[in-house]
Amino acid sequence: MPIPVLRAETFYLPPAREPADVWADVPAAELVFRWMEHRMQRRVLPPTEDVDDVYFARINQNRWIADCICGSAQVISPTDPRYGCTECGYGWCALVFPEDVPAVEAEMLLEPKPHLRNWWHPGDPNNPYQPPTEPPPPFDPDPKVALGEAAE
């Protein structure tokens, strides 16, 4: 059975000594704050306000993630398209997911090795696989033109 793409609700789980459903009432975007509190043994408060920034969701090594402007990143979920940073405390940002999340996740399952499953939103300006904005100039097979000599 293939390993599904990880979302916040399957990545940020309560400690083993707690009941598995103890965080069931916590929205997916806020699970990271509960998880960080447990790991760091101190209070990590979620943001209290929304901000105007919008981040693009992407899949990195089989995990839905969002990158913060501070350089941090965390696992996110299409079920709760918000992002609040546990590192810098930046407020809730809206997340842009693909229109058909199940189709993107199904496409990722075609790659049998989860660590090779990567996907970028086509509209993400940070996408390293952007299509060219202008077509390349036409190829001219005349070598004189390529050398800058005038044609006769």
Counting copies of identical and different chains, the oligomeric state is single chain
Residue fraction in strands: 15-25%
Number of strands: 6
Please state the average pLDDT score.
Answer: 91
Q: Can you write the helix and strand succession as a string? A: HHEEEEEEHH
Work out the radius of gyration: 22 Å
Largest sheet: 3 strands, mixed
- Helix residue percentage: 10-25%
Shape: elongated
> Runs with pLDDT <50, length 5+?
none
Order of strands in the sheet with most strands: 1-6-5
Q: Structural class given helices, strands, pairing?
A: alpha+beta
Task: Tell me what the structure shows.
By secondary structure, this protein is an alpha+beta fold. Helix content is 17%, strand content 16%. The protein has 4 helices and 6 strands. The strands form 2 sheets. A 3-stranded mixed sheet has the order 1-6-5, with no helix packed on it. The protein has a 3-stranded antiparallel sheet with strand order 2-3-4, with no helix packed on it. Strand 3 and strand 4 form a beta hairpin. The radius of gyration is 22 Å and the shape is elongated. The protein starts with 7 loop residues before the first helix and ends in a 6-residue tail after the last helix.
Topology summary:
Layout lengths: L7 H4 L19 H10 L9 E7 L1 E3 L2 E5 L5 E3 L6 E2 L8 E5 L4 H8 L34 H4 L6
Parallel strand pairs: 1-6
Antiparallel strand pairs: 2-3, 3-4, 5-6
